[in-house]
What does this fold into?
Amino acid sequence: MAAPSQDSKPSVVVVGGGIIGLTTAYELSKHFCVHVVEKRDKVCQGASYQNGGVVNVESIAPVNSYMSLWATIKASALNISTGKPANSIIRPAAMLEPNLLLWVKHFILNSSHEKILYHAEGMRQIGAAITPLMEDLFQQTGLDRVEHNYHYTPGLLLSKVADPVMYVKAKKEAFDEVFPKQFVTGQDLAVVKDSSGISGLDGAGHNVGCVEPHNITVNTRKLGESLKEYLIGKGVEFTYGKEVKLVTEDDKIKHIESDDGLTISGDNYVVCAGYDSNRMLKTIGLSIPLVPIKAYSLHISNPAVAAKWKYAVHIQAEVAGLFTPYREAEGEHSIRVTGIRDMDGVNPIERPERVDSLMQVAHRFAGSDWSARDVSVWCGIMPLSPDDFPVIGQASKFSNLFINTGHGFRGTAYSLPSARLLLQLMMKTAGKGETCFEPKFADPARFGL
It folds into this structure.
């Protein structure tokens, strides 16, 4: 049977040109005519610009399992009043976000042990789907792996705890039934540290490690930019510099409309606009419980330690840092340090004191042969859902509106499975069991959507 022509395919408008929107366009373009609309003048200029780029296929701990709202509030008060470092700060600007109380409600409802295990299983399923989809993308597009920092890079979490034996026991009791993790202590941890290439660990006090051997790294922005070029070659349209709203007619989206009056129509619409999805959906009566999290990163060019850096490692410190190796050309080795997750409203302005905190951690563990001149500083807004799982699927009020947002800190990792699931839902194959992970975990209906 001959493949349908491009013109005979149904059309879909994808709102958002970050890594979620681009992978969504990549998957949907196999069966739809796709038009991507991005409010900025280029793709991947928001949360996808300089994020960590760690594709964690083994993470099964939702944010509810390690974040205490009360502890974060207390740490915030201490930081603001005394300057004491903190991983996360809640600032007054966060109180102005329209769906904050809805997010808090669902965060609390999803914080029981049963709910945490439920979402851990969803994370296990989506994690298992990542590597085959990533491999398929690089094979189908022919993208150069090294140029995009696409490497199998083991993960490592280094922690300081009062009793390593009891800590590991508690973690295993909590999560082993979903996915057993590889913890190391004592001499085994010493071997891991010695082979890691990480500077500054001697005397730092880390006494528990968790090794994740199957993780991946990738340069999110470069991947997005290359996907854009690939998609243009496949007939996907792109429109830039347009902030749009959804215009409804009865139980459907009629078109999207920009501030200057441009209208773009399609048979279907997908909102993949990160935290902007919140604003867009609220104007048509849909309240999605997302909060904006301001995350920071430092990209350090060619520090000496980078050449031998083995892991994408999360290091507990005064302010925790995720250190990711970047090897994108022969002889070029960089380290990207990401950390700090603040509720600070939607303004992506860097706060100097937060940059300084992350810079201190970077100097502690990534050597001292570099200076601020070697560092690219960034911060961006990431949309966090209250159960740490994205919202993917059809909106119940509108028959041609679909959502793919709320990926929080896992946008790069979850982008391809999310896009594939959305395609399967739109192609009506989900009811036949043909999905890359169970749709119930991401169903918009769990939030009344």
About this structure: The radius of gyration is 22 Å. Residues 122 and 438 are 7 Å apart (CA to CA). Residues 1-5 have pLDDT under 50 and may be disordered. The chain has ten helices and 20 strands.
